[in-house]
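Exam revision sheet. Question 4 asks you to relate a sequence to its structure. Input first:
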Amino acid sequence: MLFKKSPEKFWNLVASKYAASPIPDRPAYETKIKKIKTYLIPDKVVLDIGCGTGTQCSDIADEVKQVIGIDISRKLLAIAEQRKAERKLDNVEFLQTSLFDKRFMPGSFDGVTAFYVLHFFEDVDAVFKRIHDLLKPDGLFISETACIGEKNKIIGKVLRFAGHLGFIPKINLLTTRQLELALEKSGFQLIDKTKFSDSSDAEFTLFAKKVL
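Answer key, structure tokens:
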């Protein structure tokens, strides 16, 4: 099966396996969530891009007014809805849509989060511009990205080639520095940059504020 024209099919296919996979470094994840919560207050509305099974959405829900999680996979979102019901959360909403959904108006959100999804976008500058537009003044953008471009270059090229052929969704070989420059170019100020895990493969979590 090729997924070049429909990455949703890929995520629908792997949804159950993805949902069953444990968080690799639970203590690091919990520390990250605690850190994120320090930036949130009860009257805020947050958009989570590529929310998957909704783990992060649910884990920050008690700190904000509302969390809206979006994803292209209906099967991942079905799992997210089930987990939301189990936790009895009434301020989390899941939508099967994309970041560029025209229903999302400029200045709609106090915060935007994107965990391990930015490398699936070909044009990061366009993504950051859209996020910038969606945020209110001084809005917060928190991201953690698989920066394959600064790891094993051979594996990165293989993954990118596989994406071009359609065996997996297309992958952008990003670097942390590239993301930092794109944030600055789009009108963000980087206010925090933290690795929450000691693992050699750990990525930076970037905290940026809309300043322009």
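Marking note for examiners. The chain has one domain: 7-210.
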